[in-house]
TrEMBL record, chain A:
Residues 95-298 form the ABC transmembrane type-1 domain. One of its GO terms (biological process) is transmembrane transport. It comes from the Bacteria. Its main location: membrane. GO terms for cellular component: plasma membrane. InterPro entries: BPD_transp_1_N (IPR045621), MetI-like (IPR000515), MetI-like_sf (IPR035906). The keyword Lipid metabolism does not apply. Coiled coil: none annotated. Keywords: Cell membrane, Membrane, Transmembrane, Transmembrane helix, Transport. This is ABC transporter permease. Gene3D superfamilies: MetI-like.
From TrEMBL, chain B:
GO terms for biological process: peptide transport. The keyword Repressor does not apply. GO terms for cellular component: ATP-binding cassette (ABC) transporter complex; periplasmic space. Keywords: Signal. Residues 85-461 form the Solute-binding protein family domain. Pfam families: SBP_bac_5 (PF00496). PANTHER family: ABC TRANSPORTER SUBSTRATE-BINDING PROTEIN, PERIPLASMIC BINDING COMPONENT OF ABC TRANSPORTER. GO terms for molecular function: peptide transmembrane transporter activity. Residues 1-22 form the signal peptide. It comes from the Bacteria. This is ABC transporter substrate-binding protein.
Amino acid sequence: MGRYVARRLLQMIPVFIGTTLLIFLMVNVLPGDPVRALWGDKPPDPAQMEAIRHQRGLDLPLWQQYLHYMKNLAVGDLGTNIGGRPVGDILSQAFPVTVRLALLAFGIEMILGIALGMLAGVRRGRVVDNLILVFTLLVISVPVFVLGYIVQTVFGLQLKWTEPTVQDATDITQLILPALVLGSLSLAYVARLTRTSIAENLRADYIRTAVAKGLPKSRIMTRHLLRNSLIPVVTFLGTDIGTLMGGAVVTEGIFNVPGVGNTLYDALARREGQVIVGTVTILVLVYLAASLIVDLLYAVLDPRIRYA
Amino acid sequence: MRGARSAKWVGGAIAIALAATACGGGDSGSDDKNRAIDKNGTFVYASGEPQNPLQPANTKEAYGSDVIHTLFTGLVDYTPGTGKLVNMNAESVTPSKDNKTWTVKLKPGWKFHNGEAVTAESYVKAWNWAAYTPNNQTNSSWFADIEGYTDVHPEKGKPKTDKMSGLKVKGANEFTITLTSGIPYYAYKLGYEVFSPLPSGFFKDPKGYGEKPVGNGPYKFASWDHKKSIKVTRYDGYQGPNKAKNGGVTFKNYASSEGAYKDLVSNNVDSMNQVPEGELANYQEDLGDRAINQDYSMIQTIAFARYTKQWKNIDVKVLQGLSMAIDRDTIIKTVLNNTREAATGWVAKDVIGYKAGACGEYCKFDAKKAKDLIKAGGGVPDNKVSIQYNADQPHKGWVTAVCNSIKQSTGVNCVGDPKTDFQADTQTRDAKKVKSMYRSGWVLDYPFNGNFLRDLYGTGVGGNQSGYSNKDFDKLTAKADKAQTTEQSAELYNEAEASLQNSFPSIPLWYGKLQTGASTNVTGVKFDQQAAPIFTEVQVYKK
């Protein structure tokens, strides 16, 4: 087990270097120059442009810029944006907000998704099952931004239950609506995955054995049925943490949440390579960590899965 | 008395009629006059994260420059709507006979927010610092008229010195500006916030002062919570004529104008810069009498990339014909929801020297004449044109409409040439790789017609990206710059503008208008000619 974890952790290093390099290259392929953008639609000042470029090291060849970036990264320096603000500051402000939003969304999709899935699976073919199927189909087929605008207009502008945008991102209650929108798509998938898995396992031998042994129903449901049915769901949930954090771009935009999505969008619009690379790098790390946890969780759920 | 009474009855009848048809404004409107004003109330304005530290010479985009405008007051400013010059911190700004040397006298007793006196030194030092290349101020080229600028900001290589020879301190409250050549309207340029004074502490810690600016304006800096909000509060020691009528301004960060608009409708924010495209059709209905639709000094044009084979040796008749082929009024009505006004010349409205009709008949729609002109000019090479624009902003609709108009009236094939975003668009323009024509526009820097003419169409000037060059026009602008007074200069610039009919640097399309609104918490929300709110005039109701 220890060796397995160590190997997985070591694998993260090339992935990390590869992704940063790729993003670094991709940002540079984009047309548009962040220094030129400082002048907007007014004519730029070539001498000043050159001076700023030189100061920021943007006049060096790309490979030198990358090496320079990695060297600074090793000592924890993520560089600065074009305006001279440390990227570390920007990220340390944005990430907590998005983590909060993503965890809330994650909680909603996990609890609600598994509950709905169980309900549908156990009552397979009945009215409840059909209702849940229709509901999840609806959620899956409506794009996030459409759902976001609908929720915002209905609850924020017409019913006035909440404000249309988030006024204070530290207030969890204000984040519920965007979290619901953010987690809705995955919620539907979780429900459907759970349902299929449960429906399948209901007919398994060990359930029949458990019933024959006369075990109480609640024990059969939780210890036997749910635990064995959760493996595909957990896989999905694990990778979804990363998706939730990255996918917050749209939701954060609609509800004006000052998180990672917002930062990333802004940085892209302004072609601020250092901010983009920094943000995406951390997102990649979140992804890697989440998938490692998922793999380890398998063993907990199903003791037959062992790591050498 | 009688008139008043009958007016009341009419008013009553209208009110009943509105109530009957259920289209009354609801909670806003009639009872506003009875609401008490809170002198210390805060005006919340939808904004975004400034790209640069808050240094006066380093803010180009609206987010930063709106904040700078509340914190700093320069020598002069202009009256919105007329462009007339008003002295602010300056007692007087007087030119020499040849307009080459300008003597500035300051009003005594002005102080920075930290208590330091505003002196001639505060200006001269700030300008020298801003012009010096190693200080990396994006707006340094604004000092290019001053003698010695090339010493502190050479085109190539290291600067020789960090002081411009053209700036001389004559006393605590007096200094002179010597220009490389006389400019009759130079005082107008001084209204730009680049020319703000800076306190002595700034030069020791420009970065720190960029985070927590200390100015001399009607508001003092309170806090900057990055990507969330910037707060400024009223400075009670302010000596200028535009004292703040509210307690402060909160610049609230929005990722998108859609979010800001929703908050405006639900009163979470008091105003915003421009209603998003998708709401233009219904914003007047949503906001009722709180909707604002106001002129500002912007012009939208289509420029010809003169460096291309297509336009290099073109007969001007073809260009005039293309202009006449565009049905501006119909496009404004159908595609743009009446949010623009058809242009009749190359200078936007409300600036000194604006004159309607400079473009003559060539800005009027006449399909037959358009066709004839293009034919007489030898036709459009390849019989095909394209209009480059950036797709990240709502230009596609009108570009398509303009193209259809050209196609229908002249048979010349026309297509839109979208670039993914503004960055890609400017890059193509800077690199002189535009295929045929491109969307172009200009918001005033200072309210003088020369700003729309010489700074855009003069040979080799920074704003002239199309490669247009015309000797007659250059001669006329040079003459205008040699005039004795601003008025004479503006008149001579009128001649220069009229001459553009014969060389057609670009097709004028329409003048800008601003569509926005105010919440029910505030009154007196107005915008200036650069489409920035006049913060000091806003009054906040008691809650």
